[in-house]
Amino acid sequence: MIDRAGLADFLRRRREALQPEDVGLARGPRRRTSGLRREEVAALCHMSTDYYSRLERERGPQPSEQMIASIAQGLHLALDERDHLFRLAGHRPPVRGTTSEHVAPGLLRILDRLTDTPAEIVTELGETLRQTPMGVALTGDTTRYTGPARSIGYRWFTDPATRALYAPEDHDLMSRRYVSGLRGLATLRGPESRAASLAELLLPHSEEFRQLWESHEVAVRPFDLKRLVHPEVGLLELNCQTLVDPVQSHLLLVYTAVPGSESHEKLELLSVLGPRSLAREQ
Fold it and tell me: How many CA atoms lie within 13 A of 274 on its CB side?
């Protein structure tokens, strides 16, 4: 059963404990509110202010598991706090581990501060969970995919548009890397894992994937530089730094260019072109 009073009190206290800087928002000079406003939390949780406000006022229907997951992420809850929120709402908490998509608050805090840098948080299967605005400007909104296509490794062998983002001369090694990585994960997680399921889906779909899979190649090292081809600014050579959450196997990927280089200048240009590029993509 839903604990409406407990749910309302928990949401209110967690909202009041968060500051704008904690979630990547600017603090205005006249701000007097203790913590975040309801409309700010609602925006972070991708729901209407009215819906969120009713929860804090012990009103409205029981929120779905999807809504509770969104609120838990928007409030930057730790896993124990997320599980507590699910129970207050009358739901069983999601399974923890490598299949979880709840991003740790620490990773979110870092991502929120990378406003001028392309960055993303991905699962071990290459499914994008969060992107910075510059990340969207660089590669497009890769959180929009559903089903198996959420994995960049799956899209690599099924969607030519994904390959078009990378320099053609790098494609062969990238194919080997995606297949070897998927094989390693399928072995690590087991035959019933999502990694194994992706491989089963790709085997009859892509002859290239099938041949590489049968070669049993593992641990193929990636390029030191990622070379992306943007439709407006052209080729960018970027370093990719990775921060790993070992509990849930999420990765924070941060893309940077050498200061003073042509790619650095193109990133600065992209920071201006980004919103317009995204508008044309949509």
Answer: 21
Domain boundaries, the chain: 4-88, 105-281
Distance CA 97, CA 106 (A): 17
Q: What angle do CA 134, 123, 103 make, to 5 degrees?
A: 75
Q: Indicate whether 110 pLDDT > 60.
A: yes
For residue 168, count other CB atoms closer than 10 A to its CB: 10
- Topology adopted by domain 4-88: 434 Repressor (Amino-terminal Domain) (1.10.260)
> Which amino acid makes up residue 155?
R
Q: Is the pTM of this model over 0.85?
A: no
- Whether residue 250 contacts residue 103, with contact meaning beta carbons closer than 8 Å, is answered with yes
Fold of the domain spanning 105-281: Beta-Lactamase (3.30.450)
244-259 tens-digit pLDDT: 988 888 999 999 999 9
| Cα(34)–Cα(233) distance, integer angstroms | 43
Q: Summarize pLDDT for 49-93 with one digit per residue, the tens.
A: 999 999 999 998 899 999 999 999 999 999 999 999 999 999 999
User: In 76-102, which positions are buried (b, 16+ CB within 10 angstroms) versus exposed (e)?
Assistant: bbebeebbbbbbbbebebbeeebebeb
